[in-house]
């Protein structure tokens, strides 16, 4: 975990000029869930504020942002993932479509990552 945080800080420090890019908010996002045990993958389309179940986890999308004027550009989705029966989040933070490993969810059975924002 500490190594991931260090890597993220190094990458963000090197990406300082890119942080000045203006973003627009999407109406939702398309996320992909993978059950590592069964190999089942599913795309989940969520609107901002919605929650979806995937196996034994619940995925809540707070918001999705993309570069202004480029709907097909990189997606930044703020997601909270909880395991059934556990009020504490397994993951809470930004997922970046172009860099899924940058802020990856660490779970023994499930994997979730952002694909793109939706605008309608």
How would you describe this protein?
By secondary structure, the protein is mostly beta strands. Helix content is 11%, strand content 48%. It has one helix and eight strands; from the N terminus they run αββββββββ. A hairpin with a 5-residue loop joins strand 2 and strand 3. It starts with a helix and ends with a strand.
Describe this structure in a few short sentences:
The chain has 120 residues and is mainly beta.
Features of this protein?
single chain, 120 residues, mainly beta, 5-stranded antiparallel β-sheet, 3-stranded antiparallel β-sheet, 11% helix, globular, disordered N terminus
Describe the secondary-structure layout.
Layout: H1 2-14, E1 23-25, E2 28-35, E3 41-47, E4 51-54, E5 57-67, E6 76-83, E7 89-96, E8 110-118
Antiparallel strand pairs: 1-5, 2-3, 2-8, 4-5, 5-6, 6-7
Please state the average pLDDT score.
85
Count every helix, treating DSSP H or I runs of 4 or more residues as helices: 1
Largest sheet: 5 strands, antiparallel
Tell me, briefly, the overall form.
globular
How many beta strands in the DSSP annotation? 8
Distance between the termini: 36 Å
Order of helices and strands: HEEEEEEEE
Low-confidence stretches: 1-5, 7-12, 14-18
Fraction in beta strands: over 45%
Quaternary assembly: single chain
Using only C-alpha atoms, the radius of gyration works out to 14 Å
Q: Considering DSSP H and I runs of 4 or more, what fraction of the residues is helical?
A: 10-25%
Instruction: Quickly give the structural class.
Output: mainly beta
């Amino acid at each position: 975990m500490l190594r991931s945080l260090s890597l993220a800080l190094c990458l963000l420090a090197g990406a300082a000029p890119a942080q000045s890019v203006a973003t627009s908010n999407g109406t939702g996002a398309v996320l992909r869930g993978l059950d590592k045990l069964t190999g089942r993958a599913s795309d989940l389309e969520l609107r901002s504020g919605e929650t979806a179940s995937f196996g034994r986890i619940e995925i809540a999308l707070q918001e999705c942002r993309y570069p202004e004027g480029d709907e097909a550009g990189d997606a930044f989705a703020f997601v909270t993932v909880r395991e059934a029966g556990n009020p504490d989040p397994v993951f809470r933070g930004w997922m970046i479509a172009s860099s899924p490993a940058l802020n990856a969810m660490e779970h023994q059975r499930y994997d979730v990552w952002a694909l793109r924002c939706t605008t309608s």
